[in-house]
Amino acid sequence: MHLSLPLEGGLFSSVAGLPLHPLVVHLAVIVLPVAAAALVALVIWPRLAQRYGWLTMGGLVVGTIAAFVAKESGEALAEQVGEPAQHAAYGDVLPLAAIGLLVLSVAWFVLQQRDAAAAGGRSLPTLVTGLVAGLAALATIGLTVLVGHSGAQAVWGDAVSASAEAELPTTPEPTVPAGDAATPTPTPTKPSPTPSTSAPSSYTLAQVAKHASATSCWSVVNGNVYDLTRWINRHPGGASRILGMCGKDATSAFEAQHGGQGRPERELKSFRIGSLD
Questions:
Q1: Are strands 224-227 and 202-203 parallel, antiparallel or unpaired?
Q2: Which of 31, 100, 135, 255 is the most buried (most CB within 10 A)?
Q3: Residues paired with residue 248 on neighbouring β-strands, in sequence order
Q4: Cβ contact 190:237 at 8 Å
Q5: CATH for 202-276?
């Protein structure tokens, strides 16, 4: 995500001039799964609840609050830089899962404390509630991993792929042994490629309009024509944003969403195929 964009005000927008979302999301994806894993351990070994029960409950409270703030701050940031669809979908569910886990955990902890005070072993309600809370904790851990992974993929996926492609090894040029230096074998040379004349450098809007589908998506932005077909499923804000630009002049839509942002403009430039006639 492009973080140099000035953010509008708001409770969940920024802190000290920095976007709040990348700051708080790390708290959610660390504290919540750690507390959920601790709860599973307490359910399996209830004697640990007397020592670590309150700490675990506190961790679940902090993780739940962090998940809620991460969701709200993510929506505030999405208004500025676009919304990764898959990450947003997982992020919307995580606070609800965290609240459900917190309710089950508190219910189990209260029952567990009551059983410990009675010194009569774990009751059936405690066992059942503990089992459900443990399963909910495992599900919450898995969902948190998905949230973190999808967010990291949206921010760094393209950069990592580009870096990997840049580091691909190149085939070394063949060397001639020293003994054969006097009689080198002539190497056929390829003629220099000539510019293709089959593809026009300018297009009419009528030609662009013929490419208005997911299999062939052309768009016009600021008088230039772009083939965005390969970008549809890679766009962090979701495929629908790009599909809405296919086959037409989408200058106003692009400028409204990304005007003045360096990274989106650089990415768009890489798909240029010509200019509008």
A1: unpaired
A2: 31
A3: 219
A4: no
A5: 3.10.120.10
Q: What is the pLDDT along the chain (277 residues), one digit of tens a residue?
A: 333 334 444 555 555 555 566 677 788 889 999 999 999 999 999 889 888 999 999 999 999 998 888 887 776 555 554 555 566 677 788 999 999 999 999 999 999 999 888 877 889 999 999 999 999 999 999 999 988 887 777 665 554 444 444 455 555 555 555 554 444 555 444 444 444 444 568 899 999 999 999 899 999 999 999 999 998 888 877 788 899 899 999 998 888 888 778 888 888 889 999 999 8
State the CB neighbour count (10 A cutoff) for residue 152: 13
Question: Are residues 150 and 85 in contact, defined by beta-carbon separation less than 8 angstroms?
Answer: no
Cα–Cα distance between 55 and 49 in angstroms, integer? 9
**217: nearest Cα among 238, 243, 255, 251:** 243
HEC assignment per residue over the chain: CCCCCCCCCCCCCEECCEEHHHHHHHHHHHHHHHHHHHHHHHHHCHHHHHHHHHHHHHHHHHHHHHHHHHHHHHHHHHHHHCCCHHHHHHHHHHHHHHHHHHHHHHHHHHHHHHHHHHCCCCCHHHHHHHHHHHHHHHHHHHHHHHHHHHHHHHHHHHHHHHHHHHCCCCCCCCCCCHHHCCCCCCCCCCCCCCCCCCCCCEECHHHHHCCEECCEEEEEECCEEEECHHHHHHCCCCHHHHHCCCCEECHHHHHHHHCCCHHHHHHHHCCEEEEEC
Cα 44 to Cα 52: distance, rounded to the nearest angstrom? 13
Spans of all domains in the chain: 14-166, 202-276
Contact yes or no for 241/256 (Cβ under 8 A): no
Tokens read off for 81: 């830089």
